[in-house]
Model the fold of this input.
Amino acid sequence: MENNDLNQYGGFFYPGSDQAVLLIHGITGAPAEMQYLGRKLHKAGFSVLCNRLPRHCQSLDELKKVTWQEIEQAMAQDLLRLKKKYRRVFIAGLSVGALMAIHLANKFPDEVSGIVALAPTVFYDGWSLHKGKFLLDVIWRIPFLRDSFMIRETTPHGLKDEHLRSLISRFYNNAKKNQFDEKVASFGSPFFPAACLYQHQLFVRVVKKELSSVKTPILILHAREDDMVSLKNAQYVLDNIGSLEKSLVILEDSYHMITIDQEKDKVVAETIKFLNNL
Done:
């Protein structure tokens, strides 16, 4: 694996020991949201790879075309490339990326030695979501609407850290749908296409059916005050996954973006402890 193998817009690879971690960022997000964790894992001795998800960090027209199968194919390719070179490979994913980590462990049980599910997103039920959220359940079912409707990301943007939140808010609030800004490589998309929500819904159905078949050790980290997806999401995964070795760590001072929020160092410490004990 060479750094020039990575796709553009922020993918990263840090070579280390014969144990590797594949990091998967969230849908509509960017590799930057995993970089702090990636650097700390590398410092702890792991090789670390995080690639941009297909069609991400580009135009909104491109983003809304992405399918969960495309994401699966790209992440499976990264997993199998790592497995050819490294003795053990772990997967850590954020939000929908956490579900992809679980899905890949089910599809490739012999290739994945451990899962770290960071704020797993099974259903959107967070306290900050708009009261009209129920309308989305109608919109994403209608092809014309889901292909054209975009949800502007609003405060708190998954962040309890006020300084970081203000930086992201400045970009998100001024963003225009028809103009691409390279800052999406740092902050993710300011808009969430309904088409991406549709793909999430399709993917969740797949993962729910697979949970009981997954036997890979798993660590779940989730914020009690997650603004986008409540703690019920983590509990659902914990209760339904087939892994014998499973645990849940609840964060008390973070929102959804736990890899960059106020307890990011606790996320790092718990992740490293879990991986080292496997």
About this structure: Strands lie at 12-14, 19-24, 47-50, 88-94, 114-118, 150-152, 191-193, 218-223, 246-251. The first helix runs from residue 32 to 43.
